[in-house]
Amino acid sequence: MTQKLAPHVPQTASDEGVIEAVRGLLGELVLDVKDHVGEITVTVRREGIADACRLLRDAPGLEYHMLAEIAGVDYPNRPERFEVNYHLLSMTKNRRIRLKVLTDEVTPVPTVTTVWPVAGWLEREVFDLYGIGFAGHPDLRRILTDYGFEGHPLRKDFPMTGHLEMRYSEAEKRVVYEPVQLAQDFRAFDFLTPWAGPEYRLPGDEKAEPQAAGAPSPAPATGQAPQVEAKASTEKRDPKPYTTDNEDRATAGARNAKAEALKSNEAKSAEAGGVKTDVPEPAPGSNNPASQGGPESQ
Fold first, then answer.
1. Exposed, middle or buried, 42 (CB in 10 Å: 0-12/13-18/19+)?
2. pTM attached to this predicted model
3. pLDDT one-digit tens code per residue, 5-25
4. Beta strands 109-110 and 134-135: pairing type?
5. 8 Å CB contact between 32 and 98
């Protein structure tokens, strides 16, 4: 029974017959072919990698038109320690294949920039990180590491700390490079007991300590809660020696209003620069205009 996929799922052509077609197309260029977990890997001769890529790109029925990635792998124990993997994608069939070549530290791999110009940057990355040369590359130089970088950081024999460290020098007012120096304080580490440190004694730890023969047993529980006598404290506490901003804002207005209400008319007039009159002070709550010194009282 054929399973029908949802409309948004891309259709992928089967890899059935691809290995036979590749063997027949590349002929003596093929050294090994593997089909593992649904991925086809073809190992080809180093000197024929450009021809193999061109044939797989142009062959009807295969049509691996796109170079998706070039990745390096380092196996230091092998005579040819480096693998260069070319990941190809067929845009019409929606399937992938991997080409692989082997090389060492001194033998370059032919460039595939004549087949896919995008390989220029990809080969520069492999050269920068692994030190693998590419013969015929138009501009083979570093692309990821900094100027003057020593070594190739993805090689297995490259130190994890690197060779140089970078810092900003206040004396020279610029970034300087210096040999890596590891402080000895950070190098002493016990891998057997990495959690070893200061001994903290927590409540209840005494129960785990062994008791000598004849030691008294702890008192049995009575089942009643201990009685604690509450005593009133006779100690006089000092008022808070400070006030917060909120307290100052809340009480300052009330204090000023109370002080102003206790002043007499003479004091208020003197502060305001006014003149004392014979008009009596109005009684609180009175609405009589005459008593308030209005025009009707004249």
1. buried
2. 0.58
3. 566 666 777 888 999 999 999
4. parallel
5. no
